[in-house]
Inverse folding.
């Protein structure tokens, strides 16, 4: 499936921890854990937008992996 | 895609035949290798098909498969290491080796999650070390076969390009999980600290560990959205004020002391990836697992060097890391 744009609200929900999917892809787990840690010290919108782009980019660059496809389906249906 | 132990003469021959190799071995033996398309790091401990061994007279070899379309060997220092992710090929992976206790080790460990392109492409690797009898007398090193360059203050990286029908993926096997004890947080990102917040209350961390009689062979474990990430203690059972770690603790993460593991070898075997050995190109495990889990002579499945730190995108402790290469299904 195509990777939805960064403006899709699910990305920011994941970045802020409002949505907590059980990812299979290790890089997704690590980047979400890292974003959560960074947001604990600075919750500014500018930073959140940067993190949303970083998170999405991991899915875009690894979209061929079956695990990533499964994770995308899990979060976007 | 086997990983195997070879003699010096065998490895020399492989290098002169133009094979692309990832090497691990004792410094004295790595120094005798000719230039070629290889990188290496010092360590004399290995997990082999026969079990854990300490060997100074053999080299652990991972040969890149022939379908690899290109390799680019680079060295980085504590500043330029920030480019390691953005230098990775668009379709491929990178293998990194960093000497223990070097400035590059500390810089990468603390700052990697802030580097451009963090975790976008697969980065796997390890921290080189020394024989435990040589601690304090010898230093960990890395080697770049392009020019047979030796270094104890920088990282060596092999950037590997893959054909479009192959893909690389990094995985970890962590036998530890968070225990049921206190929540532990830290006020700063650091390799050592005297203070921690225990369930939100500031305490001297060394005194806390001593009073609680916490087993420091078990790591602190943080939950990264389901991935359990360890930080190991450097000190033994002694009472200390300042507590040191083999990887940094980060502010903003909630740690817990790990649950004890009854049979580590069995736990590793249970958690090992179920892929065929052909799909796993490279793996390494932690020297602390080798020591504390008494893996000498025990088989656990995957083979590779027993290292002073493991890298799966970022620095890890007490963890096995592996790189899997798989075929991509043709797009219909």
């Amino acid at each position: 499936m195509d990777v939805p744009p960064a403006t899709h609200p699910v990305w920011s929900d994941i970045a802020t921890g409002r949505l907590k999917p059980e990812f299979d892809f290790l890089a997704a787990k690590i980047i979400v854990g890292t974003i959560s840690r960074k947001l604990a010290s600075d919750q500014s919108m500018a930073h959140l937008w940067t993190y949303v782009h970083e998170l999405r980019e991991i899915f875009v660059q690894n979209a061929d992996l079956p695990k990533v496809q499964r994770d995308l389906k899990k979060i976007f249906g | 895609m086997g990983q195997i132990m070879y003699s010096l003469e065998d490895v020399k021959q492989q290098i002169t035949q133009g094979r692309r190799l990832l090497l691990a071995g004792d410094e004295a033996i790595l120094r005798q290798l000719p230039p070629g398309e290889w990188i290496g790091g010092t360590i004399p401990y290995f997990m082999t098909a026969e079990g854990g061994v300490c060997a100074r007279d053999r080299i652990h070899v991972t040969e890149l498969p022939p379908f690899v379309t290109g390799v680019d060997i680079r060295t980085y220092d504590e500043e330029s290491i920030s480019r390691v992710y953005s230098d990775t090929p668009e379709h491929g992976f990178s293998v990194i080796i960093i000497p223990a206790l070097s400035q590059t080790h500390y810089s990468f460990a603390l700052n990697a999650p802030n580097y451009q392109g963090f975790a976008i492409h697969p980065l796997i690797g390890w921290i080189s070390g020394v024989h435990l009898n040589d601690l304090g007398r010898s230093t960990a090193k890395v080697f770049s076969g392009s020019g047979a360059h030796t270094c104890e203050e920088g990282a060596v990286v092999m950037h590997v390009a893959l054909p479009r029908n192959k893909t690389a993926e990094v995985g970890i096997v962590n036998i530890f999980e968070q225990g049921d004890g206190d929540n532990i947080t830290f006020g700063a990102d650091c390799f050592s600290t005297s203070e921690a917040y225990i369930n939100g209350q500031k305490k001297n961390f060394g005194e806390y560990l001593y009073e609680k009689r916490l087993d420091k062979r078990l790591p602190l474990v943080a939950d990264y959205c389901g991935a359990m990430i360890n930080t190991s203690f450097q000190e033994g059972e002694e009472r200390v004020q300042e507590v040191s770690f083999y990887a940094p603790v980060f502010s903003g993460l909630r740690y817990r002391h790990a649950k004890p593991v009854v049979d580590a070898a069995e736990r590793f075997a249970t958690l090992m990836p179920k892929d065929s050995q052909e799909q796993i190109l490279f793996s390494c495990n932690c020297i602390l697992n080798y020591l504390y889990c008494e893996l000498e002579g025990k088989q656990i499945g995957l083979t590779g060097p027993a290292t002073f730190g493991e890298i799966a995108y970022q620095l890890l402790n007490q963890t096995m890391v592996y790189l899997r290469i798989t075929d991509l299904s043709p797009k219909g």
